[in-house]
Give the backbone structure.
Amino acid sequence: MVTLPLQEKVSIVAVLSDSANFDALLALDTVLSPIAQNLDYVLIANGLDEPTSRELIKRIHELPDTTIHFLPETVDDDFARLIAIDNAVGDWLLCIDDLNQSWDVLPQLFAALEPGIDHVTVRTQRSIGKQSWLYRLLSNAYMRAYNKVTGLTIDREGRGCKLYSRAAAQYILHNRRAEMLLHSLNLGNFFPGKIINDNRVAPPENARSTREGLIKGWRILMRSTTLPLRIVTSAAIASCIFNASYAILVVVIHSINSSVAPGWTTLSLQVSLMFFVISLLLALIGEYLVQIDRSVNHRLRYTIMREVRNMHSRLDGKRNVWRTDATQEPLTKITGT
Amino acid sequence: MKHYDALIIGGGFFGCMIAIALRQQGLARVVVAERSNQIMRRATQFNQARIHRGYHYPRDSVTARASARGYHRFIDDFRTASRPDFITHYGIARNSKVTPSQFEHFCKSVGIPLSAPSLSMRRLVDSDLVQEVYQVEECVFDCNRLMQDVRQRLQQAGVEVRLETEVSGVSSKGAKHYFQLNNEQASADFVFNATYAEIDRQGIAVRSKVKREWVEVALIKPPPDLADSGITIMDGPFFSVMPFPSRDCYSLTHVRYTPIASWIDNKDAPAMGAFGIHKSIQASAMQYDAMRYIPCMRQAEILGSYYEIKAVLAATDHSDARPVLFEKSDDFPAVYSVLGSKIDNIYDVLEELPEIVNRSSAVIPYYEGSR
């Protein structure tokens, strides 16, 4: 079994949706403790009811190095996961998609770490969830289109867990397509990854209505790309050209044809030039908006209502001394970020 | 032939403190051999003079916790050398390796205080390049006063300090180690090699790879707006403007320009100029880059630069981890190489000593006058 050195911290990021998850975390800790000596848990309580929140606060002392961030309102699970990543400081970030799963695969996941590897994904079999057929149809079509446009490989397999190096996690966090990158099997050539295929069927995804799916799809599209705005500016430029051409045509007709109705030329020129100016303004404003959007720091915007922390740490009393003798290997780290 | 219970090679801060601790643990004859004509004149004198509290290490909680743990103890122990009369700040740059949320999360988990900076400090930084600024509680030390303090402690503890002394020809027979102090033959039960960048040049092999950097630290007269305060911008772009009390000026270090050359094998060591304070090479580059983040830095005046060799464990060089190396030699029964790191991590090293001393049969009973 791989054991990471003390200097290599692993942050476990997960979203809590009910109190039963806490027992799953304790089970996870039992498996992880022999692998990583330096662990912390960054948990997001997303849309919990009051009794469940109370229960979590009561039980936090059971798990050292744990922080629970309570959100004021329910947000999408992927967004909640990004909030957890935004607060995690580990050298490695273990992202848990679903806490109600078996942890047998974790030793294999950490064994896959080797110099140069920045992310490892456990890919389970996808189970048919409670989503409607319309949701599934639209979702599949959306993903296919998204993959084609962006060059990503969005994981349509079951939910499992992923291990990211710090650099890879920061890349996801600061990327416009952050929510989709959480499901991507590739993070670009500069972050090589590995996939571990797990034949087990993953727990079904939380039911999401077609309307919720459409809202999320639209939000991700708007956040991921400026393409819709580009379409607007392109249409405005096309309109400019059309109106300018029409104005020239009106002048030509007026010159060669003496039988045009009185006032037609004036009215037509007035309308075409007016729309020319409006379209030009739209194109210019649209272009500036694209530039502004590019220069804006796409930082996550969120509010944390309450933060509860277990200050007890498994590092308490550990000295910052690398003590070696002939029986020990010199200090080595898997990665540097 | 003179016999010692322990020989400490290197009269830096770590070497001297180990010597005092060994005396306190009952070793009667402890000697520190220092090559130069004064203790604590190299790495201890020429560094950032910062008493780390952990803020520097958001990506290594072990080093951060050790610093947070040792901070108050160090200030209490070396009250005359500590200078808490400066306000220190940390700024998180855009494209940093840590986000402001992560930095706040880290400080809370380590238990080190953060607060909002004054409005005037906030206005000093360019908000396009710096996401967030925090006021922290961290101070610096005056190396000259620290040296006086340690010298006094050595004297009080009864540690023999041999200046301008080279140690050579380390060998062992049974449990004893033999060596030459200049040309004088001597022996010791324990040998501690605390020679920092020279750690593998004492005839004592060190298995852990040590990376050396020839570094330049600019000494500046700070801009008036930064008087009585220091700031560190991190973590990716990384530079510090900190008070440097022993020279009554400020130091400016920059992650890109401070290291001039680096090497692991001594055979790859470049030709270096003289150590100590000389004319600046990279200081202007450091200042120009710092001006992007803190525009008032254009008013800083470069006074010169000091040059020194910095040593870190090669395995942790690319990360935030800065553990103290404590390596037992493969070739000798009781020779230990100690590569110090952060000054307030000394207590972690001292806590290692009783186990080493007590498990050896060479221990001499507790000496009354040693505390």
